[in-house]
Predict the structure.
Amino acid sequence: MKKIFAIIVLLISFTNVMAENKEIFGIGYGQDREIAKKEALADLATQISVNIKSDFERVQKVLNNEIKSSAATSIIKTSSEIPLLGIKFEYQDEDKVIAILSSENSLSAYINEIEKLTVETNKLKTMAEQTNNSSLKYDYLLKILSNLKLLEKYKTVAIILGHSNFPVLDITESEIKDQLVKIQQTPDSLDTVVNIISKELTFNKIYIFPVKPKMSEEITEFSKLLKTMLAQKTDSVGTPENAEFILRGNYEVINNKILLNMNLYNKNYNSIKNYSLIFDSKIINAQFQPQYQNFDYALLTGNVTRSNLKVKIGFKGYGTGEGIDLNAGDKVDLVINTNQPICYYIVGHVFNKNEKFSYLLPIGVYGDEFKGKIAGELVNTNYVVAENIEIAPPYGREVLQLFATTLGNDGKCELNIPSCHTNKDGYCVLENEPIVNVGKTRGLSFKNVSKNIETSEAIFSFTTFE
């Protein structure tokens, strides 16, 4: 009888564990399985971001951080840089791959990494406290800072997968940053900064994303300059799809110092190396302060899609990630990917030195100059909306905002499009500035849409240079 009772208890426990298994899926399509696998991993990173947005308060509570709007943006944006561990792949046909992150297959890998990093960070903290060598202490603190950032990323995914019991570290990121600022031996030129980083970049076929200011999607003049200088010192390639490694990062300004953080990933988005440097902002002879943070916040915080309709927009060969920089004369194809038949329209938000405006892209189907449609065999493909687009004035930052709905039973499109008027340059511009138009178009696009119609939004940011 006792044995039967024990078996029943075990079965109940096993059933509970299985019921709590959390799975997150990424779906990729491509000409072959390798391309589809890359797309699936990139889509999985996006789905992790959606889950972090949905569970933000719980993530923050476990991480013991104060809930702030700026912190929300930071956590959401780290998802694209989280190393993906214990991923299971399902191959469906030659052109479709599903990447699965789950509690069952992945959680133990994240917990192991968290435990190892915690032990290593505690040892580094002890060594930093005991050494009298300021240069050696600086190296220890940089490594601790890198570990803390990586720990936050691992813990964020572990929390999403259902784990909440982590070892405590008696040190904070702000304390480390304060110590770094005090003892930093400042490089005297940007050339020195580039030399320090490039000495570690001995890998082949690296695509370098421009570093972005913290809490911003903007590519500043400094971002572009640093990318150009690093490309001259490394084996860099022109597009992400041709890369074996990806270098990306961000920076923040602290007391007139630049804290630069960069991460090198392999093509499977696993972290290979981390770099952190602090230097005086005076050595940068280019604009480094972001100019459009309020716009970025409005754009990012309002874009939460909870329907089964998934859409993506980007340039062919560059993926759908943020931080694309292009030069005058470059040519690109604009593509959209959707998992269901849709109608859609695209708003472009333009920022340059002389003006800021929003406009509608003339993609023209449906007898409407600005409304497009994707259906039939074009679903689940990278549909080319416009090809061979040459980069031309106005140069500066641009954000494409895609609004989409599924089609009604009669094929009818219920999407609402804002009115616009043609300006002297031929753009059909919206009435207000971009920051106002972001909210207004979101409010208008899906107004009075039928309950059975699914809605979605996608964002793509890039910057062009003369």
Q: What stands out?
A: The CA atoms of residues 392 and 408 lie 38 Å apart. The chain has a mean pLDDT of 81. The chain is about 35% helix and 25% strand. The domain at 186-289 is CATH 3.40.50.10610 (Rossmann fold).
